[in-house]
Specification:
Layout (H helix, E strand, L loop, with lengths): L7 E2 L4 E6 L2 E6 L1 H7 L2 E5 L6 E2 L4 E7 L3 E5 L4 E6 L2 H4 L3 H4 L8 E5 L11 H11 L4
Antiparallel strand pairs: 1-2, 2-3, 3-9, 4-6, 5-8, 6-7, 8-9
Length: about 130
């Protein structure tokens, strides 16, 4: 399982990377591997505002559909248009080309609610039965 050391993680397998006053978010390498081949990503509109933990996107794969939850509260400033034509980017590069949204976080103290890469790795190991 790949992790990005510059990200924080949610229990529901989203990542967020904050740079200055903008944050980028997507689903983790673990999430994309569990979903298998991603065939469709439904993203929000620019200008939409979400609270931390709210559903902001849906991912459909050959195996299942999954909701994607907002890692931090904020307003969407950009969505990854590439995903409409190339949803497989989520599988190929979940922390890079496969990002979902860029947003302006409204409360950076919410980062304290998220897991570090090490904590997330432990979380996934527990979910998988401690292997």
């Amino acid at each position: 399982m790949k992790l990005d050391k510059n990200c924080r993680y949610t229990e529901t397998h989203e990542w967020v990377r904050v740079a200055g006053n903008l944050a980028t978010a997507g689903i983790t390498d673990h999430a994309q591997s569990e979903l298998s081949d991603v065939v469709y990503v439904e993203l929000p509109e620019v200008g939409d505002v979400f609270d931390q933990g709210e559903v902001f996107a849906t991912v459909e794969s050959v195996k299942a559909a999954a909701d994607v939850y907002m890692p931090l509260s904020g307003e969407i400033v950009e969505v990854n248009e590439e995903l409409s034509d190339s949803p497989e980017l989520v599988n190929e590069d979940p922390f890079g080309e496969g990002w979902f949204i860029r947003f302006a976080p409204s409360d950076l103290s919410e980062l304290d609610d998220l897991m570090t890469p090490e904590e997330y790795q432990d979380h996934v190991a527990k979910e998988e039965g401690g292997h």
